[in-house]
Amino acid sequence: MKCTHSPGPCRVFLFWLYLLLPTAGWAQDFGWTPGLQRAYADLMKLRVAEAQQLLTHENPHNGVTIWLADYADMITLLISDDERGYDRKSKIQEQRLDELADLDPKSPWSRMTQAEVRLHGAFVKLKFGQEISGSWDIIKAYKLLAENARQFPDFLPTYKALGVLHVLIGSVPENYTWVTRIIGLRGDVRQGLAELNRAQQDPVFRTEAELVTLLVQAYVLKFTEADSRQLAQLVAQNPDNLLLHFFGATIQMKNGQGDKALAFLQARPTGPAYLPMPIIDNILGDIYLQKGDETEAATYYGQFLRTFRGQNFLKDTHYKLFLCYWLSGKPATALPYLRRVKEVGRTVTESDKAAQKFAEAHADKGLTPSQTVLMQARLATDGGFTDRALAVLKPYSENQFAVLPDRAEYQYRLGRIHQRRNTPDLSIAPFRRAIFLTDSADAGLSFGATAALQLGYVYQQKRQLALARQFFEKAISYKKHEYKNSIDNKARAALNQL
Question: How many CB atoms lie under 10 A from the CB of residue 110?
Answer without folding.
Answer: 24
